[in-house]
Prior knowledge:
This protein is mainly α and 202 residues long. It is 65% helix and 0% strand. The longest helix is centred in the first third of the chain and has 27 residues, at 35-61.
Amino acid sequence: xxxxxxxxxxxxxxxxxxxxxxxxxxxxxxxxxxxxxxxxxxxxxxxxxxxxxxxxxxxxxxxxxxxxxxxxxxxxxxxxxxxxxxxxxxxxxxxxxxxxxxxxxxxxxxxxxxxxxxxxxxxxxxxxxxxxxxxxxxxxxxxxxxxxxxxxxxxxxxxxxxxxxxxxxxxxxxxxxxxxxxxxxxxxxxxxxxxxxxxxxx
Length: 202
C-alpha cells in the first residue's frame, strides 16, 4: 500500500504535475470555470479515461502480458496527444521508480510504456493499482483547476473525495474496459496545437 500512496502523492517526481488531463484546454474554452463545472468534468474523466487507465493498471498488476497490454491500450486511445501524454508520464514514473523500487518486472515493460502499466508493475495488488490510476486521473486535473482558475482548494478536494474513486477502481478490476472519451480526445488534440503560452503539457 505504501507504494500506491507514494505514486499517488503529487510530490512524487514522476512528471505528472505538468499534465492537466485536459483541464487547461477545457478552462481556456470556458467549459470549466467553477466548482460545479469542475465536478462535472472530473466525474466524466474518472468514468472514462480514469476507468480505462485503472483497468490496465489492474491487468498489469495481475501479471498479464505487458507488451500485449501496451498495444491494447494504444488501440483504446485514439488521440495521438493522449497516447503521447500517457507515455510521457510512464517514462517519468519509470525513471523515478527505478531508483525507489528495483522490481524484477521492470525489464518486462515495453519501451516507452504507458503510465498505467508502470503503476501495475510497481503496485502488485490489482485493486491498489487500479485505485492509484483512478485517483491520478482526477487529482492532477483538480490540482490544475486550483492553479488555473484560482478555485478554493478545500472545495476542490471535497469534490475529489466525493467522486467515488474506490467504486471505479473496483469496477476496473472486473474486466478490461474499452470505454472511449471523445471529448477528452478532442480537448487533447486542440491543446497540443494551441499556440501561445501553455502551463501544462496536456
